[in-house]
Design brief:
The chain has a single domain, classed as Alpha-D-Glucose-1,6-Bisphosphate, Chain A, domain 4. Helix content is 27%, strand content 46%. The protein contains four helices and eight strands, in the order βααββββββααβ. An eight-stranded antiparallel sheet has the order 2-3-4-5-6-7-1-8, with helices on one face. α1 packs across α2 and α1 crosses α3.
Length: 164
Amino acid sequence: MSVEMHNGIQISTMLFAERSRIFYALTAAEYIEMWSGGTFGADCVYCDSDQRSGGHFKLALTRSRSPLIDISGIIATYVPFDKVHYLWEHTLFGRAGQSEVTITVRAGKARTFLKIAHVGALTADEHAFFGSMWQSAVLWIARSFARNLRQRLLISGPKVIPFS
């Protein structure tokens, strides 16, 4: 059997929203439950996040009472409203794996710059799943926190850039 591996995923985009709101939506359990619930038709979502360096993180999605993904790990670095670095252990499609996720948020004059880097030896299925998951998260955040209707209409899908 041949397994195609990818080094990771990178998403960079500009959003019309406050830096603190974007960061909170990507790190707080109650928001993670909201944006991850629609990913791949999950009907049950559980998330717990201790937002401190050394804190633990858990996300579990199920569909039709079958596990879809189970992620657990620790928060290696946490700089409020600026950067968070997760070390993940995940089970997806029956395969256990490890990866690292770094979320960086920088404020601009009228927009906020967001960069998500998800690295690790990912299979093609994992790459597709996590790429879709992060795209869904960014679109949900962009639409939820845009300051006005015009900004919501300007939102286009973030592009997933594979690491080479």
